[in-house]
Design goal:
6 helices; about 140 residues; binds FE2/S2 (inorganic) cluster
Length: about 140
C-alpha cells in the first residue's frame, strides 16, 4: 500500500468494501462518509496510513447480517433512494445524526445532511426517511 492512498481507495480497492462511494474525491459530496473512531468523516480526505489501527465503520457495518438497520429500511420504504449513489453516505450521516439527536426537526436534518449531496431526489423523501427512522428507533 502506498501511504498517499486515501482511506476511500483502501476500503474500495484493497478491502473489497464498495459501499462508500467515490463521487468527488474532494470532501464536497459526502458520498464516502464513514466513521473514524466514532467520528463522521469523508473517507476521501483521510489517508489510508492515518487510518491504520483506528476503528472504521462503513455503511456495510450498519446492518446486522441480513437485517437492515432501521435507517436503511426507512430509506427504502420512504422512496429516498433513486440512483443510490449518495445513499451510503446519507445512511451513515443519518445514523450519526440520530445517535446525537434522536428526534431531529426538519431543520436539524437539513443542517446535519448539508454535506451530503443528492442529484436525484430533491431531498424531501430523504427527510421523510430520516423522520421515519427516528420514529422507529424511538420505539425500539
Ligand atoms: S467522494 Fe468524498 S466527499 Fe465526495
Ligand atoms: S439518489 Fe441519486 S444522487 Fe441521490
Amino acid at each position: 500500500m502506498w501511504e498517499g492512498e486515501s482511506l476511500l481507495y483502501v476500503l474500495r480497492e484493497r478491502m473489497a468494501l464498495p459501499g462508500s462511494k467515490n463521487a468527488c474525491e474532494q470532501g464536497e459530496c459526502g458520498s464516502c462518509s464513514v466513521y473514524l473512531d466514532g467520528i463522521l468523516v469523508c473517507a476521501c480526505l483521510v489517508l489510508g496510513g492515518q487510518a491504520q489501527g483506528r476503528d472504521i465503520v462503513t455503511v456495510e457495518g450498519l446492518a446486522s447480517g441480513e437485517a437492515l438497520h432501521p435507517v436503511q429500511q426507512a430509506f427504502v420504504e420512504a422512496g429516498a433512494v433513486q440512483c443510490g449513489f449518495c445513499t451510503p453516505g446519507l445512511l451513515v450521516a443519518t445514523h450519526d445524526l440520530l445517535q446525537r439527536v434522536p428526534r431531529p426537526t426538519n431543520l436539524e436534518i437539513r443542517e446535519a445532511l448539508a454535506g451530503n449531496i443528492c442529484r436525484c431526489t430533491g431531498y424531501a423523501k430523504i427527510i421523510d426517511a430520516v423522520q421515519l427512522a427516528a420514529r422507529r428507533m424511538a420505539t425500539r
